[in-house]
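ok so i was messing around last nite and threw this chain in just to see what happens. nothing serious, just curious
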Amino acid sequence: MEYGLILAQAEQDTEVIKAEDISGSEEVQTTTTQADPNSGAMPVRRNPQAQWSQIIFIVLLFVLMYFMLFRGPKKRQQQQQQMVQSLKKNDRVQTVGGILGTVLEVSENEITLKIDESNNTKIKVLPSSISKVIG
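result:
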């Protein structure tokens, strides 16, 4: 709705504004009081329950951020480490680069994979480069 200004009347400490709808069907009256410049500042009342709800909301936001940023990656890293520790000879694996191979030897710092049966091609990779065990 658009309002056109019909009448504005200012009194000593109250301002009355009347507005009428352009179509002429409604009339709206708004009254605002003006603060006296000689009086002191008006005290602001705060709702203590609203403050607590804001604090609780912020705490819940931090808890959610913790689970999304720290807990998830840490859990995936533990699963990766457990998978690498459970590797044994003749397991079929896929590396992060997409190379498929069979585990020949597992040591603490490297894993030896056989990637070609006909040429007996072997490759040494880091344990962190194993993405999944195929079967």
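not much to say yet. The helical segments are 48-85.
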